[in-house]
Amino acid sequence: MVCGGDHDDDDIHDGCSGDNLQVLTRGNTDQPFKPLLQAIQSGDYEQFEAAAQKYGNEALCFRDEWGYTPAHWAALYGNAEALKYLVARGVTVDTSCYGIQGSKPVHWAARKGHTAAVQVLLQAGVDANVADFKGLTPLMTASMFGQTSTASFLLGMGAQHHLTDINGDSALHWASYKGYADLVKLLVYSGADLTKVDNFGSTPLHLAALSGNAMCVKTLCQNAEVSLQPKDKNGKTPLSLAVNHRYKEIAGVLNSEIKKRKKVIMPGGLIQTALNAMFGRSIYSKGPLLLFLCSFLMWWYPLYVYKVIPATWNLTRGCHYTYMAWNVFMWICWITTKHSDPGYLPINSGRYIRIIRQLPTFTCDMRTKKDILARLCHTCRCVRPPRVKHCRMCNRCVKEFDHHCHFVSNCIGIGNRSWYFCFVISLTMNCSYVIYMVSCTLNVEGFNILYVLALLQAIAFGILSLAVTVTICSSVLLNLTRNELINYKKYAYLKNEEDKFHNPFSRGIVLNVLEFFGCTRTKVEKNEDEFFCCD
Ligand SMILES: [Zn+2]
Ligand SMILES: [Zn+2]
């Protein structure tokens, strides 16, 4: 869609507003159609059945001058029983209406958030990704009208979030444009492409800036891969659009996010940059892994074998033996961390499928419903217990997700965190040995730029690994993951009734340490079922 310009969601024929039954029958001289539509609208099944039996299949398959069928109206009013009746009578429930939109009943049901009607239509064989003449799928339609639970249901039933309409807009573009923060979150969680550009050069962030909803903008900005100052085909950035539309709060959010990212490349933010490189803010990057391997295998080890050993073997023989032993240990830990399962949650779980199927008939309050929706991962098709986070790099949900480490190119979670801890400790030890041995070599052989470079590199790696060791030690002692330590404000389970920080997982230092090394079961594993209110 063109930023600040027209949008065409209201092109759907006026009749679709469904508030005025007269629109339905306007121009219809065919009287049998009218009682049937009245019965559909009233939701009175007996009245509908009586009208259907009286007027027969001719009325059930009737199409008015706009091509609307009884199935369209049943979908619009969320009359799932009438739809079931139509399906049972073999009536086609997948007909496009006439005109430029060509909506099918499933689009109307999605638009109004009638999940039960959508379910009947999908069960009748309607494709969850069926497009109308403008390329809009039911998921896009639900996103356009803020129907979060219907969108969630559609995602669970196989709706694809990467599809786009004829203007190149995806469901995320629409949810952002309309300012539905919950939907934006749902689509972001589901792995929607945050950087997709539509035919007008607009990203979801451009459209969120136009929505007037600062929460949508914040949600998108929190993701490192979202560029904050992309230009659309008119050369406009999200910030310039927000300023033009006088959305001060959004402009403020964008300005502070831009500043935050700039800080990272300023001298004061060097440590942050180094930590980001260590923990991998640069998404999808293999750079840190290559840097780590090359600096050991292609640079330091040859220098050690050909220069340092001959110069210092007799002086520090014991030190060399210990260093080699630490090296063997470090590589064992590195390989095990890299190749072990960090604690991936099984995909396609039966519980997820059961919840998705029950969604249309959930009777619990909105808050509980939202809570349940937030627990669903539509990418892994699983239900996430607390402390589980979906890793965007691995594209899997990880139990007690700590972070995705680019130096080992794997997630760090409950399954491999103890190996990772040993790896970081051994790396710190190795760096201190290298500093000592290179200093000795410099003493014996005099100044050589190669030794100075090796020394600087060992100091840099040493500081980083020491910082990581300290971070891990604090998370071991507190029984919180690094992700929880950083994002504690985001997690409801880390807050008490007064909305202040509260750590329900700490069981005392000894038990916390034992739990970290897998010697005792975690509290969440024990009480997992408490966290689910439906099954
Ligand atoms: Zn997941
Ligand atoms: Zn990962």
Automatic annotation (TrEMBL):
The chain crosses the membrane at residues 283-301, 419-438, 450-480. It comes from the Eukaryota. Its EC number is 2.3.1.225. The keyword Repeat applies. One of its GO terms (molecular function) is protein-cysteine S-palmitoyltransferase activity. GO terms for cellular component: Golgi membrane. Pfam families: Ank, Ank_2, Ank_4, DHHC. It is a multi-pass membrane protein. InterPro entries: Ankyrin_rpt, Ankyrin_rpt-contain_sf, Palmitoyltrfase_DHHC. Its main location: membrane. ANK repeats lie at residues 66-98, 101-133, 134-166, 167-199, 200-220. It catalyses: L-cysteinyl-[protein] + hexadecanoyl-CoA = S-hexadecanoyl-L-cysteinyl-[protein] + CoA. It is found in: Membrane. Keywords: Acyltransferase, ANK repeat, Membrane, Repeat, Transferase, Transmembrane, Transmembrane helix. The DHHC domain is required for palmitoyltransferase activity. This is Palmitoyltransferase. It comes from Cinara cedri.
